[in-house]
Design the sequence.
């Protein structure tokens, strides 16, 4: 989760491309879809380990990732003021709260 933020901070343009409008609507890039699913699996594994039903794991993962993406976007756009020295701890705390809320 902190790695998600670090990636976004180091590569903001790529993060904004990845978190923007879906560019594979027509399905012309099947490897892109595979990469997206693989990336989401990183987050889904934690929810799956709790014994949740698969459908609930998908929902919880979607809510978690969307929320994390929103927090990171707000920090990158400087709408949410977080000192650089406190950013990792802020993201980690936010993730703990999100996980607690969606579990």
Sequence:
């Amino acid at each position: 989760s902190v790695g998600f933020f670090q990636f976004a901070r180091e590569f903001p343009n790529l993060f904004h491309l990845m978190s923007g409008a879906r560019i594979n609507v027509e399905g012309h890039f099947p490897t892109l879809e595979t990469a997206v699913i693989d990336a989401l699996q990183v987050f889904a594994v934690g929810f799956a380990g709790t014994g949740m039903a698969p459908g609930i794991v998908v929902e919880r993962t979607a809510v978690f990732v969307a929320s994390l993406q929103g927090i990171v976007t707000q920090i990158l756009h400087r709408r949410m003021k977080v000192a650089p020295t406190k950013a990792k701890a802020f993201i980690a705390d936010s993730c703990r709260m999100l996980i607690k809320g969606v579990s």
